[in-house]
Structures are given as C-alpha cells and as structure tokens.
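Our collaborator T.R. sent over the components below with a one-line note: 'Predict the complex.' Nothing else. No constraints on interfaces, no templates requested, no preferences about which chain binds where. So this is a plain run: every listed entity goes in together, and whatever single assembly comes back becomes the starting point for the next discussion.
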Amino acid sequence: MNPLARLFSAEPTTGAVRTDSIFLGVCVFAVVILLVVLVLVVGFTAVYRRGSRARRGELPKWLSREIEIGWTTATLFVALFIFWWASSAQFSQWTAPPGALEIHVVGRQWMWKIQHPGGAREINMLHAPLGVPVRLVMTSQDVIHSFYVPAFRMKQDVVPGRYTETWFKAVRPGTYDLYCSEYCGLDHSAMTGKVVIMAPGDYARWARSQPEGDSLADQGRASFVSLGCGGCHGPAAKVPAPPLNGLFGSQVALADGRSVAADESYLRSAILDPAKARVAGYPPAMPAYQGVASEEDTAALVAYIRSLAAPPAVEAAR
Amino acid sequence: MSRSYLTDEVTLRSWLTTTDHKRIGILYALTITGFFFLGGAAATVIRLQLLSPDGHLISADTYNRLFTLHGVVMVWFFLVPAIPTTLGNFLLPLMIGADDVAFPKLNLFSWYLFLAGGLLTVLSLVAGGVDTGWTFYTPYSTLYSNSNVMLAAMGVFVVGFSSIVTGVNFIATVHMLRAPGMKWFRLPLFVWSIYATSLVMVLATPVLAISLLLVIAERVLGLPIFDPRFGGDPLMFQHLFWFYSHPAVYIMVLPAMGVVSEIIAAQARRKVFGYAFMVYAILGIAVIGFMVWGHHMFTAGMSPYASLVFSFLSFIVAVPSAIKVFNWTATLYRGQIALDAPMLYALGFLGLFTLGGLTGLFLASIPVDVHVTDTTFIVAHFHYIMVGGTVSAFFGGLHFWWPKITGRLYSEAWARTAAVVMFCGFNFTFFPMFIMGYLGMPRRYYHYPAQFQPYHVMASAGAVVLGAAYLMPLGYLGWSLLKGAKAGANPWDATGLEWTVPSPPPKQNFAVTPTVTTEPYLYHEEGRTHADARRLTPHRRQDEPAP
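Returned assembly:
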C-alpha cells in the first residue's frame, strides 16, 4: 500500500485519530481558499487582460469597504473556529488519564534508554501494552532531544534538567518507528528506534522475561540505601528531614512560601538540586545529588518514593 | 542635466566611500548576491546527499555544518537584508521625494558592519564551520558542539547591528524627509512595508544580540546561564531566540508584500484595492508578529496555558495576511492586466505565499504542530514563505525596478522564462516535503528511512530546476547591463515619484523637490473605456534586445 493511503487507514493511537481529523479538516479549508484565490487570479487575468473588451470602471467606495469588512470578519471567525477546535481537542487530552502506566525515558547522544516500572530496561526499543494509557516521563542526560513517534502523531522534546511528559493509548498492535526530531549533534539521524505495541498479556510476559528482576521502585530502594539517603530520611534518622511516606501526590509547602505538587518533576529537582525548592520547616541540610545520582538512578529513586505512596498503577502493571 | 549616480564618479574609491543611498543599495546587492549563491551551493550539496537514504557523498559532520551554513547565510545574510537594503535603500528616498536617507554616513557604516559580520561568518566557515543549526539551541551550542560557534555567533551579532542601524535610518527618513504633500496615507505601500519592517528590526534585533552574547558568555567564559546543572534553563534561550526570530520572519516577508503591491498595481493598472486596509494589515502583522514566538515551542515543554495563548495569537496574525492576499486578488478585478516578467514573479509570490500562509494554519493548531514540527513539513512551510514568497518578490522587484536602477531593459522573453521555471522548480522542490513531513520525516537528518526516498528524489530533482532558474538572471541581466536598450524614465508607465526622475537617476535624485497632491496608484479613472486602454499596450515589444 502506498504510504499516503496507509497514513489514514490504520491510526494506531487515539491521539493520532484526533490529530488526523483536525489535519484533514484544515486541509479542506485550505484547499478551498487556495482554489478560490487561484480561480480568481487566473479568471481576472484572463478577463481583464490588457486591451480586452471587458467592462471596467471604479467600484463605489461603500462597496469595497463592505467587502473589506466582510472578508476580514469571515477570516477572523474561521481562524477562531479552527483555534477552538484544535485547542479543545488538545486541552482535553493534555495530561494522561490517572492510573496510566509510567515509563521513564532518558535520552542521550545518541540513544534512548527506557525503564519500565517492572524493572525491565531497554535501549532504542519501547515495548508497551495495547489499550492501556502509557505515560512517558522523560529527561535528557546531555542536549535537547525529541521523542517522536510519527504513527502516533506524538512528539515531546526531552530536555536536560527537567522532566517532560507525554502519553499515548495504543489501539492497534504493531511496530512503529521512533525518531529523535530535535537536532542533537553528529549522529542525530541515527538516534532512532522502535515502539512495539503488544497485547497486555504479551507485554506482561515480555516484561517478566527481561533479565532485570527488580522493579524500578526496588532498584530505587537499593539506590536509596547505597546513596545513603536513609541516614536522614530513614525511620531511625536523627536529622530532621521531610518524611517520604505518602509524599508523592501531596502538596508540599516550601520555605519560600510556595506550595507545589509532589510529582515526578518536583521529586527529581528535590533530589538533584534541593536548595532550589527547600521544604518549609527543615534546615538546608541535604547535599545536591547533581552528578552523584545518574538520571536512571534518579528515575528509580522517584519510582521508589512514588511506591511509598502506594500508587495503584505501578502494582497493576507488574 | 546632472550626471547619473552611476557615472558621476567611477573610481573604486568613490564607490567604497559613497554616501549615496543608490550606490549603497548597489553595494548591498552585490554583497548579498554572493551570499545567496554561497547559501545556495550548500543547499545543492545537501540535496545531493539526500538523494540516497544512506549515502556517503559527504560525512554526517559535513552535512550538519552545511545545513547550518545554509540557514545562517540565507537568513541573516540574504533574506533579512535582501529587499530593505537593496531596493529599500535605492527606492525609499526616491519614493518619498527625498535626496537621500536621513543619515547617509550611517547608511554606509551599516554596509561596512554588514561586511564585517559577513567576513566573521565566512571566517568561521574557513575555520571549519558550525554544526549547531542556524537556531544555536542550547545546551548543544554552549556545552557540546565542537565547532566555531563563537565566530559565527559574533558574525550574526555584528550583522544584527547593521540591521538596527539601517532600521533607525529608514524610520528617520520616512518621518523627516517626505516631500511636501506626501502625507502618511499617500505613501506607496512599499514605503509602508519598509517602515514597518524597520520598526521590527529596531525592536527585535537587540534581543537576538543579547541571546547570542549569552551563548558566547556560557560557551567561552563558562558562565552558567542556560546550563541546567547550575539552575539554568535551556528553554530560556529558545524564548529569547524566537522573540527575535519570529518577528524576523516578518522582517523578511513584509518588504516582499510591499514590492508585490507596487508590481500588481502597476501591471494591472489599477489602484491597490483597500489601500488603507493594506496599511493597517502591514502594521497589524508587525505588532502581532511580536507576540506569537511561542508557537515554535509547542513541543519544547512549555506550559499548556502558554501554548494556548500562543496558538490563539498565531491564528489572529493569519487574518491580516489573508486580507492582503484578498486585496491583491481584488486589485486585479477590472484591471488592464499585463503579464510582464515582474508580474509573473508577483503572481508567483501570491500563489506560493498563499500556500505557505495556509500551511501556517496547520502549525498554529497545537495537535497538528506537535506532529509536524521539526519535520520537513516545517521546512516546506517556511520555504514557501521565505523563498516562494520573499525571494520571488525580490526577483519581481529586481525586474520591475531594473530599468530604473540601471537605465537598461532586459530580455523580456528570458525573464519570463526564468520566472516560470522558478515557480515550477520551487514547487517540485518543496511540495514533496509537506507530504513526507506529515508522514514523519524529521528535518536535519543525514540518513533517513528508505520509505521517504521517493519524496527526497523529487525534491532534489526540483532543486536542480530551481538552481537553474536562479542562475538564469545572471546571464540575461548581465547581458542587459552591457547591451540592453535604454529604458527611459518610466518604461512601465507607472505612478510613483521614482518614475519621474531619469533612469538611472541623477546623483541628487530630484532637480526640483516634488510636491505631492494626490493619493498613490492613480492608474484608472472613472469611465475609462477599453479603447483608451488599447493605448496602454506593453511598452517595448519592438525594441527588445536579443539575449
């Protein structure tokens, strides 16, 4: 099948269906406008070619004024309509549904590293179950990359120093291309991979067959110990440090008066650069783990802290 | 009668120290022609490499340096200065009835700045090139790239000041030097467009200068500005960069709109439809164009609410552009339309700009933009605006005012052929990029998945045609300089003060300062019949020189 025909016949995600419908709608509008302009330009040029016998003469001023106002208003309304249509579609699906399967992605020159909640790790491959919303929590170890799966109409820049996220819900099993779409240096065009969508049972079997047995949260627990976090945050700690049980998803009051939601991004920056967002009521005792904990360690630590709040999705996915 | 600006003095020294706006326009024209073919040569090699999905005509490193070179040179050393510094310099004083720009010495200084910036950039190429892309995104440009980022950024920094100086000069010129009776709403639309462009240049370019200095500070001095490890934010650079670089798109396209308005009115012998609305549209684009930069960053990790606002404003800025397209079309209605070469270029502009503008609606729609940003769809979109639009208009303006500038006519047959070939070659090159972009072909890829090869081959074949079309004017315009027939003061029978002086204009422009008593574009009067129009047959079929 030729690629254009294939394009709209088998959209593999709910997001792709939405994007394609907007694309086709705007296409129809654009083609109509283009044809109108084309027909008028060619028609006028033919009819009013220099020396032709067509009637000429000035248009009444009020008429040209009405025409101007007319097409200005019409264009404005069409623009507002497309804006409303596209934005409402986007906004209603901006964040992943609760309970989505959370997969961590770390980009680096020039590969994609994937960490599954069950502990499986892969490079340049992302296995994901069919019919389950999958949330990707992503960061970069070096420059900006962009996680792009054209078939899903899904793209999100992967930025060093922060988590960005995107999500998808696949409705068709298959293997889809993954590209880096933000120029990232020498081998930018080689930073590609595959996304494999499998039936949930197959995904579970695949995850179990992976060599790394520990879940991401368990790996985080190990890092928690090896990095010495427990010295302050553990149950027997003498130093006053914010408790981690039940922290994930709660509101945290900061020393500077702000209140932030304890999500993945907050936990990441609280581990790597705690001075930036110090918790109210605690001394600035924690060292920065920037350069000590790798992005993969951090993702595991975040998953561990998240598990202390007993989120259902992580357990369900195992 | 005084001698023309070309023959008044002929030494090289007289050219390099000239403060005559017309000569400075010529100096710019020669300089940017060099840069145009340099950038074009880079594009040619890129298109050759992309003929094959895994070719090794050049290395990946060379490829990255070539697309950076192409972008940097074409944006800052051709597209931004193209129309304002050549046609703008030459025509602005003539069109408003002035003897020169407000600050003639500053005008020459800005050319030297341009040259200095250009030399720095060429130096960075000679020293091995830059591989960051023309966008200089951090932290790649500041911490990871092993190329001459500093030299290139300095080149662009310096050339930015040339822009600012030229902008200040033009603003002052339009405010201070209009001839008696040349009220604001009697200004030709080309003057309005140059005026609006100058405002954007003066307000936006300093931000580019700041962002490049910050890049240099982080890269060379190690100051942590965008580096996230020290609390910096790489997205801050993108905000700064696009705060300039989106208005820069309007710096590139507004003058083109001005040129096309002049050509269409003259060739259709018709008053520009909705003159006042055209002026408001120019100003509207210039103002709203400052508030849409975030639409370059929908996938960058910006707040969803910010994306919403930028999407909304991007749809709003489409309205004045659409109005201009409708007005040009309506100007043709009841005209006396000739299809001389400038008109073919102008109509080519109209078609390509319309398609480029309409594809902008896709990109303002967030979900579609998320899919096609950083693919060849974007590449096609902005080439339709900047090359299909601006470059077509530049060639149209060059052909329209060539007789005025040089005093010579060119071969109409060759010029029309070049216009048609350019239009076709352009579409062959860039339309396939829309399709493969929607299919998911990322931009700036050295190797690519084999399923995209047919589109790449089409684009490369089109580029050969386009390249040939760009070379043709060198031949027939060169011929015109040597052997072209004398043009006369007003070969198009056009309105506008520039056509009242001899071709080429005398050094002092106007022997007597003109007084303006009427609105512009008085091409048709009430009740003119087709019999009157017969007199207006095209002007020079009989004495056309052989190419």
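Summary for T.R.: The radius of gyration of chain B is 23 Å.
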